[in-house]
Each structure stands twice: as C-alpha cells, then as structure tokens.
Design goal:
This protein has helices at about 5-10, 15-30, 40, 45-50, 65-80, 85-110, 115-125, 135-155, 165-175, 180-200, 205-225, 230-250, 255-285, 290-315, 325-335, 345-365, 405-420, 435-440, 465-480, 495-500; strands at about 385, 395, 425-430, 485-490, 505-510, 515-520. By secondary structure, the protein is mainly alpha-helical. The chain folds into 2 domains: about 15-370, no CATH class; about 405-520, no CATH class. A 4-stranded mixed sheet has the order 3-4-6-5, with no helix packed on it. Strands 1-2 form a two-stranded antiparallel ribbon. Helix 15 (about 325-335) packs antiparallel against helix 16 (about 345-365).
Length: about 525
C-alpha cells in the first residue's frame, strides 16, 4: 500500500482535488434545488433557526434525532444568514468532504490517480446528492464512513495513534446525528478492533480510545449543562423513546430475500467476491485472520452490513448506493495483488461498471429526486420559491402534494403567513412546512420538529412516554402563554396532535378557509 503525506497529496493532485471540489459541491448544490418535500427537505431549517433565537432542541422543541445537525446548520445560518444558500452550502460542503476522504482512501489502495478520481466522482454522485439538503441519515452515515476510512489509515500507517481520537469523535457526531446506524457499527467494529488490539497487545490504543470516549462524553454533558438542557430529558427524547420506536419496527419487520437481493445486488456482488478472495487467502496461508489486511476488510464488511441492516429498518428511501464504487475500488485493489493476466482489462471493466451504476442511480434518484418523493412529479412545472419568500432564492418549488399546481400551494402559504403576522397574541402553529417560522414575523412556537401520525415524531396514545410528552406540550403552552393553536387545513395533519394531549373540554375548535383553530380555555 502506498502512503501519501498530506503535503504531497495536495501538491501532486491539486488538479484532481480542484475537480473533486467543483464536481462534488456543485452536483449536490444543483440537485438540492429541484423540488421540495417540506417535511424532509427542510428537516433542519426551522430547527436551526430556533437556535438563533436561543431555543434549543430537547429543551424547547421535541426531537428524536438530528441534535448535532441542527447545531451545525445553526453555524451556517450564523455565517451566511438564514436562507436557502446557507442550507444547501452545508450539505454541499459535506459532500465534498466525503469525496476528498474517499479519494485519499482510493489512492491508499494503490489505485492509479485516474481510477481513484472516477471512483471518487461516483461516490460524490451517489452520496449526499441523493438528498441534496441536510438530513440525519446522511450525516450519521457519512460521519461513520469517514471514521471507517480513518480506522483503515490508523491500522495501516505507522505512528497515527491520534487518528483514534478523531475516530471516537466521529462516532459521537454520528450518534448525535442519529442513534442508528452508529449503534450497529460500534458493536461490530468495536468487537473486531478489541480482538485485534488484545491479540497484538496494543493496550496503548485501547487507553487512547477509552480516555477519548470519557473526554467527549464529559465535553458533551458540559455543553448540555451550559445550554440548560436537562439530562433526563435528553435521555428520554434521544435514547429511550426512539428505542421504543426501533423495537416496534423490529417486531413488524418483513422482507423477502428476492426483494432484498434485487435492491442490493450491485452492492452484494463485490462484497461477496471480496469475501471469497479473503477466505481463499487465509486458507492458502497467504495471510492470517488477525492481520491488518483481514481486520481492515472486516471493518469495511461490518460497516456495509450495518448500513444494509439499517436501510432495511428505516422508512426512508434507499441512500446507501454510494457504497458500490467504494467496494468496487476495494475489489480492484484486491485483483491488483493477484498473479493473473488481464488485470488492466478487469480494472477497466470495474471502472466501466462503476460509471454505469453511478449513471443508473443518478437518473433514478438525482434526476427524479426520488429520495424526496418527487419521482412522479414533473419538475418542469416548478416555480421559483422567491414567490414564497426571498430567503428561499435558488429553490425551485414544487411539492408532490401539489404536483399539478404549485402556485396554489404558494398562495396558501402566503395567505397563512400574512394572517399569522397580524395576530397580536402568542400562538402555536402545528405544521410540517419546516421553514415557515424563519420567514414569518412571529414566533410559531412549534412543540416538535415534525408531526407524523405513526409515532416516529412524538409519543402516541399507548406509548409509555405519552404522558411525558403531554406534560412537555402543556409546559410549553404555559411558558409561552399560548392562546390559540393553528393547523393549516391543506396539510391534513391529524388534530389528535393536540386532542390526544389536551383535554377536549379545555379547547374550543373553530375553522375558516385556511385554518383549524384551537382556542385554549384551560389546561389540565
């Protein structure tokens, strides 16, 4: 394996790095603007805006994931202002970081620069671009991808023990983005690394990992304390309640092998081939189980299996096809070590296959914006989102719920904004248009990041944390002196979002053309 210093990497590959930046940044930046599915597209928008108003997740609005992504987006808003550019700049920069780490990794596999570049551009096409905008799944996954790369470097490069501090930090950042898949990755990769370190008597690295874990844990607790976020509330919202959701999904999980294989065959094929190569090497005594070569392969293998399992459990669209060019690169690296003819032809075949796969899923996910439920929407009918607010400049607005007439939806949103701004008392606005708070000259006092009826956003009746959330909601209403609660009729959000938590005798319901309105009479 060739090793490259950071200085030589920058000097020798400056053109490639520039190309990687331009491609990875702008492909994400461009496709992010095509259409909108507000509950996903703006998942961190108003949440980050709330932090600018000194309102924090856990304490001021209910969340089940995405804590650190909100914090990151807060900094982008702080620097660039609260606007669409700052929002997509965040995810586009992240796509570049993933790509440049991938490029360095591919070079370290002894791949030539052209092949490394092609695999990198394939990753950039299929990584963050599928979403385009900041999202918990992507941040959680790509923090883990970078940590997996660093584990590879730490195991194969001498005197890189400080990498383990960064790896622990990335595990924390992944967890604070979303609790899974980091839980699966920590358990699987942790078991492999523990075996390796004990076998090789690398107790010093175990100490680094242990004390790094303690440091980042104490550092995070100190941040919660500084922000006056109750530790028990954090435990409930970020640990225990999401765990109850996950257990329910496991119990209801069904998936046929045929469907599974058809969806992931292009990923499974290189993984299986690599597994066969490694097993043959061990059987032929060309390597051994505890060698860095096998351990690093197992690190990538468990990472991919963890993501596959997580993908099967999640309700989101498939987002892990970026793994395909990574495993094709690993397969090419393995083939290069074999004493066989036609290596160049096999390498070319893998490169062509990577290009084919990238184009295939690019058209399926990026061109149609499938991740945001826009695959059956004619994006040519979209309208500039400046019609809603100038801060959304750059976004072309069309929502799958108003696919035939986006102007109708824009008119509803503008009327709602104008109405709300004329109200001279405190209200609560229940909405999944997760940018309305930032463009409205009135605090909308949302009690939760999103509102769904499947129990994934707030505890429903029957969940053991129903009463806990009920008290959270009532406390917010009291603290903000809320007089009325508004639902936008066109959203069709269940009114049980309120009536399941506040006594029906304590609210009066009225409606007009735009809204359902609950008037607060009393609180019990």
């Amino acid at each position: 394996m060739n090793t490259f210093s950071y200085k030589s990497l920058l000097n020798i590959n400056l053109f490639n790095l520039t190309l990687i930046f331009l491609f990875s940044f702008f492909i994400n930046f461009y496709y992010a603007k095509l259409g909108s599915f507000p509950i996903d597209t703006f998942f961190h928008y108003d949440a980050a805006y709330s932090i600018l108003k000194n309102e924090y997740p856990i304490k001021d609005y209910w969340i089940v994931s995405g804590f650190i992504v909100d914090i990151f987006q807060y900094f982008f808003f702080k620097i660039f202002g609260v606007n669409w550019f700052a929002y997509t700049f965040h995810s586009s920069i992240f796509n570049f970081l993933i790509s440049v780490f991938s490029y360095y990794f591919f070079l370290s596999l002894d791949l030539n620069k052209l092949n490394a570049l092609i695999y990198t551009l394939s990753v950039a096409t299929l990584a963050y671009t599928i979403s385009g905008t900041p999202f918990v799944e992507q941040h959680a996954t790509f923090f883990l991808l970078i940590s997996t790369y660093l584990i590879f470097f730490a195991l194969n490069l001498k005197k890189k023990n400080y990498f383990w501090v960064l790896i622990v930090m990335l595990f924390f950042l992944s967890f604070l983005s979303k609790q899974v898949p980091v839980a699966y990755v920590v358990l699987s990769q942790g078991a492999i690394l523990l075996y390796f370190f004990v076998k090789k008597k690398k107790i010093d690295i175990l100490k680094i990992i242990f004390f790094s874990t303690i440091f980042f844990l104490l550092f995070f607790v100190s941040i919660l304390t500084y922000l006056k976020i109750d530790l028990n509330s954090f435990y409930v919202q970020y640990f225990d309640y999401p765990r109850s959701i996950g257990l329910d999904r496991y119990s209801k999980f069904t998936k046929s092998f045929e469907i599974f294989f058809n969806q992931y065959k292009f990923l499974l094929l290189p993984i299986i081939l690599l597994l066969i190569f490694k097993i043959r090497k061990i059987n032929n005594k060309k390597t051994y189980f505890s060698s860095p070569e096998i351990i690093t392969f197992l690190i990538f293998f468990t990472f991919s299996i963890s993501l596959l399992f997580h993908q099967l459990m999640t309700k989101n669209q498939i987002f892990i096809y970026f793994l395909i060019p990574i495993f094709l690169a690993l397969l090419e690296s393995e083939i290069n070590t074999l004493k066989i003819n036609y290596k160049k032809y096999l390498s070319a075949a893998l490169i062509l296959f990577s290009i084919f796969i990238s184009l295939k899923y690019h058209y399926r996910f990026n061109e149609t914006r499938k991740f945001h439920e826009l695959e059956r929407v004619d994006l040519n009918n979209s309208i500039s989102a400046t019609a809603i607010d100038k801060s959304l400049s750059g976004l072309m607005w069309i929502n799958p719920l108003f696919r035939d007439d986006p102007s109708e939806e824009i008119s509803i949103l503008k009327q709602a904004k104008e109405r709300v701004e004329k109200i001279d008392f405190e209200i609560m606005f229940i909405t999944n248009y997760l940018f309305l708070d930032s463009i409205t000259k009135k605090n909308l006092n949302s009690p939760s990041r999103i509102f769904t009826s499947d129990g994934t956003s707030i505890p429903l009746k029957g969940n053991r944390y129903h009463d806990y959330y009920k008290q959270f909601l009532i406390n917010k209403i009291k603290k903000k002196n809320i007089k009325e609660i508004y639902f936008l009729k066109s959203e069709n959000i269940s009114k049980e979002i309120i009536t399941d938590y506040i006594d029906r005798n304590c609210v009066g319901l009225s409606e007009d053309k735009l809204f359902y309105i609950f008037k607060i009479i009393c609180l019990k």
